[in-house]
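Postdoc handover notes: sequence design on the structure in folder B. Input tokens:
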């Protein structure tokens, strides 16, 4: 029996049906979002999944209840190009031999598990890698510079672990190509933003939140014209937010600067900005004119505005409620709209909840 692809998301439970492993021409197997588990792996199961060693190219089993045995089993699928084991119950170290076995892998997703230990050195051999997603685990040790050596890498997500960035490696990787999306949340970055990041001009997504970055808010990101998501929340930046040069960033959609220590907001004018999160800061200036005069600049596209915790923000001035209500007209159902915003000295009514993660 042969079949090239199976897509199943129908609340399946138990183990993967063994019949699937007899489909010798199976190329794509998608079983994500079920309640499957690996149970106690039997010797015959290892032999059966081995039937797909030379055929299976893509395996997506995210959002199930697979344990460590499943990760060990799939390592025999040496032709895999796409593997997604995210959102499962993995609680082991990443196998040291993983880089020797998955030599064709293009995208590897092991995020949102409970993986421990460090990132194996053998992963350096995954020369075809385009996307590496190890975020939101319990990984420790240093982030090693060879992670930035993959020539085709577009996504590098290693944040949300207990990894530590060694600032002494900055110079070594400064001239190397950078991924388009970089997730370094909670990676032990201390002091100023590493200079090698400021030299990358092709970033689309940059998350440096929950580190210990200090000093003035960086100005260099205004030169990254491709930037759409920029998240610097939960650091220790001071001074004023960058001045009204956001108009250079024609693609910027999300700007999250919450839980820092700035004093002045400054005007923020960009045509596509949809989420602006500035909560839990120490603002003591007037409400920016671009917020008061909307919707023509920032408010023209803004769907979420977070200035909450005004006991820590001391803004003054007013915004026209009618104008801000007009912002929401025409947006699809499902968007969280920032409407009905009124500024008073020290207070903000009708704030939008649910932005604590920014």
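Designed sequence:
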């Amino acid at each position: 029996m042969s079949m090239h692809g199976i897509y199943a998301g129908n609340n399946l439970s138990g183990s993967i049906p063994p019949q699937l492993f007899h489909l010798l021409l199976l190329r794509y197997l998608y079983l994500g979002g079920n309640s499957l588990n690996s149970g106690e792996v039997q010797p015959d199961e290892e032999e059966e999944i081995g039937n797909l060693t030379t055929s299976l190219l893509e395996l997506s089993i995210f959002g199930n209840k697979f344990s460590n045995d499943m990760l060990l089993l799939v390592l025999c699928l040496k032709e895999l190009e796409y593997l997604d084991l995210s959102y499962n119950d993995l609680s082991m170290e990443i196998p040291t031999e993983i880089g020797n076995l998955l030599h064709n892998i293009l995208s590897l997703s092991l995020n949102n598990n409970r993986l421990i230990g460090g990132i194996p050195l053998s992963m350096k051999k995954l020369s075809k890698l385009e996307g590496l997603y190890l975020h939101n685990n319990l990984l420790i040790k240093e982030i090693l510079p060879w992670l930035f050596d993959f020539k085709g890498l577009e996504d590098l997500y290693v944040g949300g672990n207990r990894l530590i960035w060694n600032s002494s490696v900055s110079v070594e990787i400064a001239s190397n190509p950078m991924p388009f999306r970089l997730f370094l949340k909670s990676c032990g970055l201390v002091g100023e933003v590493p200079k090698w990041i400021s030299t990358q001009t092709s970033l689309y997504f940059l998350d440096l939140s929950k580190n210990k970055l200090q000093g003035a808010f960086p100005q260099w990101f205004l030169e990254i014209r491709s930037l759409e998501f920029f998240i610097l929340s939960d650091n220790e930046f001071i001074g004023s937010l960058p001045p009204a040069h956001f108009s250079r960033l024609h693609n910027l959609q999300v700007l999250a600067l919450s839980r820092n220590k700035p004093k002045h907001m400054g005007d923020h004018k960009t045509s596509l900005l949809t989420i602006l999160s500035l909560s839990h800061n120490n603002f003591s200036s007037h409400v920016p004119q671009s917020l008061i005069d909307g919707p023509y600049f920032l408010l023209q596209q803004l769907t979420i505005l977070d200035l909450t915790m005004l006991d820590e923000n001391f803004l003054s001035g007013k915004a026209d409620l009618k104008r801000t209500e007009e912002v929401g007209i025409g947006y699809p159902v499902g968007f969280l709209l920032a409407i009905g915003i009124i500024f008073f000295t020290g207070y903000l009514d009708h704030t939008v909840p649910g932005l604590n993660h920014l």
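Context for whoever picks this up: The helical segments are 43-49, 68-74, 98-101, 170-173, 195-198, 289-292, 321-327. Don't rerun without checking with the PI first.
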